[in-house]
Backbone:
């Protein structure tokens, strides 16, 4: 009995090594985040079409309260930051630091959703790697800042909704909508998650066909002319990426299919759990299939495409191929992706 009990207790040396690895991992993540945050903070007003808008709003808010169309949650955050008297660069860096904290929260919720038993810190590193490589995350960091923040909150809201965790769904949903009202569209379709997998796929399939055929645009124009005018009137005078975009639709469906096509390359039971989670991604595509034909139609894909980073991160973390999930490969990937992110921001690479 005593020998077995002693054998079950980790050796002091093993604990020390584990603690050292954890500290090293935390320092690497911190270093990557600080580098990314610095480049976002000092970006010029010409990097991202909305950078000057947020900078101007911050400066106005620092001097006095202003009337704005921005959502109350974002106004509250900006007001709190402006009260410190910080510079515009510090404001931009603070917003990105907040987005990183939100990303870490979303990764944690997804980690629990998949019921992982591994190291969360490594999964966080892989998730950040995938986010830093995503032009959509860059877009949500330096351009569509409010929507970028909100997108990483609506993802855990829908994860909680699917699991009938109403308190978590409500909390993350309210926070997401308080930062960007468009998140209400994703929450509107959340009840689809309560249906069976076949019905979910059928609804998504019909929505996809209605979109690529132009039927959804026609139905909204005839049945809801005011909604049609509002969607087409976004960013008055612009016609950027307006109309049906079958390329966007096909690219979106591609990412839904990836966990199924590569299912044999994933360790179980995590592969099945990742595939179950694609229902959340599918629901996040529904707003695009309904109104993704207006000006700047890619804005409806920001949330689902950002969520892809967490899904791909989980696939790498649970890959059957040892090389793909080797700690050295994953942690090196974080460092390389940080440099890619720096390039994206400095070059203004957006999608």
Residues:
């Amino acid at each position: 009995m005593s020998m077995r009990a002693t054998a079950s207790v980790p050796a002091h040396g093993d604990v020390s090594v584990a603690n050292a690895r954890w500290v090293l991992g935390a320092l690497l993540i911190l270093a990557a985040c600080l580098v990314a945050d610095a480049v976002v903070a000092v970006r010029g007003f010409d990097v991202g079409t909305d950078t000057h808008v947020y900078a101007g709003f911050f400066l106005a808010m620092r001097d006095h309260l202003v009337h704005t169309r921005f959502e109350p949650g974002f106004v509250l955050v900006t007001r709190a930051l402006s009260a410190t008297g910080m510079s515009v660069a510090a404001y931009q860096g603070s917003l990105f630091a907040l987005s990183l904290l939100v990303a870490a929260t979303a990764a944690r919720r997804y980690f629990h959703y998949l019921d992982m038993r591994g190291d969360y810190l490594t999964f966080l590193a892989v998730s950040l790697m995938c986010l830093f490589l995503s032009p959509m995350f860059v877009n949500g960091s330096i351009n569509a800042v409010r929507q970028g923040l909100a997108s990483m909150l609506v993802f855990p809201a829908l994860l909680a909704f699917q699991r009938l965790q109403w308190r978590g769904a409500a909390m993350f949903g309210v926070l997401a909508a308080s930062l960007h009202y468009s998140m209400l569209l994703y929450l509107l379709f959340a009840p689809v998650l309560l249906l069976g997998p076949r019905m979910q796929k059928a609804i998504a399939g019909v929505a996809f066909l209605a979109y690529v055929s132009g039927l959804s645009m026609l139905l909204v124009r005839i049945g809801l002319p005011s909604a049609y005018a509002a969607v087409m009137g976004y960013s008055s005078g612009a016609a950027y990426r307006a109309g049906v975009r079958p390329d966007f639709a096909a690219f979106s469906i591609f990412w839904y299919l990836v966990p199924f096509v590569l299912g044999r390359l994933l360790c179980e039971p995590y592969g099945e759990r990742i595939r179950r989670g694609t229902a959340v991604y599918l629901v996040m595509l529904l707003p695009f299939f309904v109104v993704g034909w207006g000006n700047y139609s890619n804005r409806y894909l920001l949330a689902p495409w950002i969520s892809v980073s967490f899904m791909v991160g989980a696939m790498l973390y649970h890959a059957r191929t040892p090389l793909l999930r080797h700690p050295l490969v994953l942690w090196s990937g974080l460092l390389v992706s940080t440099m890619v992110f720096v390039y994206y921001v400095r070059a203004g690479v957006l999608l």
